[in-house]
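note to self: dont lose this again. the chain is below, predicted strucutre after it. 163 aa total, dont forget to put it in the shared folder this time
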Amino acid sequence: MAAALLAGQAHASGDESAPPKPNCPKGQVWDTKTGKCVLQTSKATSDADRTDYAYRLAKDGRYEEALSLLDTLQNPNTAKALNYRGYATRKLGRTDEGISYYLKSVALDPNYAQVREYLGEAYVIKGRVDLAQEQLVKIKALCSITCEEYEDLAEAIAAAPQA
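---
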């Protein structure tokens, strides 16, 4: 029971399992089962591994590779996969497309703080600080003002040009 509560708190705060440390060559993905890089076309690699590694790629600035890896998912319509697709597309400058993925992710999991942070950041880019503020209020309800998602979005809002 305690483990389930902790897992729920981790999810609400967006504290996802850290992306895998190994940096696989292009066209490969980290497979936790084998503990090594494998071809991303390998059917043995789970969607969870693919999704987590796609996020790692995106955080490393390898956005196109992240999107290509997300294209290999058997079930691409999960909150995490849609969030990470939104993140990569937004970072490529396709903010409206990123927002569409974030909104799909929120619809699947309204308690996913990380997607709300990224959605808010996209709204800041679009000059919609009002909508970003709405996400900040929702993040506060999920994980308080001390969680990373709240702090990061609050910082983005504070840095936004004032209209």
